[in-house]
């Protein structure tokens, strides 16, 4: 009966292990404690079997088979204590080899040929004799020392807990549960056989059941383990591209998944420490983070989608995250805080760039008075900057800027073709990269705005049009200016036509008057002499001679009149020769003396029409001088200047007042002929001071000839 009862502690610990592995949320600390309980159960089974072993050889075989139990309890217990106390050394990559490797070597040496000296006790079965070997003594001492070290770790942790009374009680309870078996084992199974040379009392394994019981009670009563130490966290989250942090209710950082440690390398050095305030840009941001994230989550509330900017303590680029905080509950009570943050740094940067682009659009619009727009061909959405929209439509709500129907309503009825044109281009995939349209829109007051709209097509890597960015420029003022210029041009054209017609009529009147008053009278005189010759009774030779002389004079007058009508180019003369003949004829008539000057002028540079215009202007001004000036001397100058070609005709006649006589037919003809070649006319005259006419032609007339 006693032998069967000796298996009770082992069965109890096996039950605890089953509960831990199959009925508790898995985590690393629980797994370590479960392994410790299993090792303890193996040790207790060995003690129970020693009660029934018949011979020393059987006891040695059982010892070689089951000694792994009591040897493994020491490193497993110490590892559990370090994990439970949250020591960062437990996460070091050399920690596990440093703790387990010495005991593994000791175990190997222990079972390879070494035999512990046992004696049979009627009460305890086979027990270690005082004369046991060195290996057995060293292993027992090492197990006791490492177990006591685990006690020290847990007690130290209990003293460090300041503001969590339950966790402090829990730590002391667990420390007491392992302290008593550790002291008992040191006394009864190390000091008695090795130092005092007495038989051991194998009660350590049974006493360690107190430790198992203490941990189990703490697990149920004091929430022993942090959910943040879940064994599957690493396995589930190691490939998750989100930052996952677990913090204690008091703000201590307990866990960071691999991605968090990659994006925030300083996390590994902050485990077990409060979340540093320097992670946030300033004290106000840290206060807001505690008030809006940590405090509600610690109180059992979930916090969703909080934008937070993290600033690494050692400097470097800031990280923008979208944070979600959830309480970790156990039996309805918050045990920790789960922080899940999505790294949205790139998205925030893109949004900032988009905002800057939008601001640039608005600034460009303010500077250029253009309405900048952006048409996303994939979504169909259209953005028009608010400054440009308000400038065009004044009090129209900005929300209408992206409304296609509102745009259609404001488009001039005669310009709806632009909509059909754009839809046609969209169906064709916008074959051209640049689009330019002119159309009109209507304001609420009925006024018409003319727009010049230019757009540039953006394409993706495949060449598909995805966006069009453009600017609509208000060209209403330009259109009005063009209309006024067109009307002015039409008026000028009409004035030129009227002046030319009037000039032609005046020229016809002069020719008619010349034929009637001069040539006709001469021919009439010739006819009278011929009649006298025909009716004379005597010789008529004198009358005939007089008739012939008169007819010759008529022929000269006709020739002179024809010369004034024939252009220089048709008479085979150069411009200079034609002007000299024109001036010589006036001088020979005894009207006045003339002087012609040419300077720096190559006639080959002058267009033929310009030569004719110069000739006609000189001819017209000489006619004005003959009929009105009563001049004694006339000087004509034609030369090349830096600005173009200058023609000057100056006389010393009676002069006139330009303000009263500027609309004469002769002067109007001169101005009309000058305008045909983009020339300008200037008249300097005064009563009694003669007249100086200057006509200037620009260099462009010479370049056109070249």
Automatic annotation (TrEMBL):
UniProt entry keywords in alphabetical sequence: ATP-binding, Coiled coil, Kinase, Membrane, Nucleotide-binding, Phosphoprotein, Transferase, Transmembrane, Transmembrane helix, Two-component regulatory system
Residue ranges constituting the PAC domain according to the UniProt record: 304-356, 435-487
Coiled coil: 471-498
TM region positions: 6-23, 35-56, 62-82, 94-111, 137-159, 171-195
Chain ranges of the Histidine kinase domain: 614-701
Top enzyme class: transferase
Matches recorded under SUPFAM superfamilies: ATPase domain of HSP90 chaperone/DNA topoisomerase II/histidine kinase, PYP-like sensor domain (PAS domain)
EC number(s) from the headed UniProt entry: 2.7.13.3
Catalytic activity: ATP + protein L-histidine = ADP + protein N-phospho-L-histidine
Protein name: histidine kinase
Lineage of origin: Bacteria, Pseudomonadati, Bacteroidota, Chitinophagia, Chitinophagales
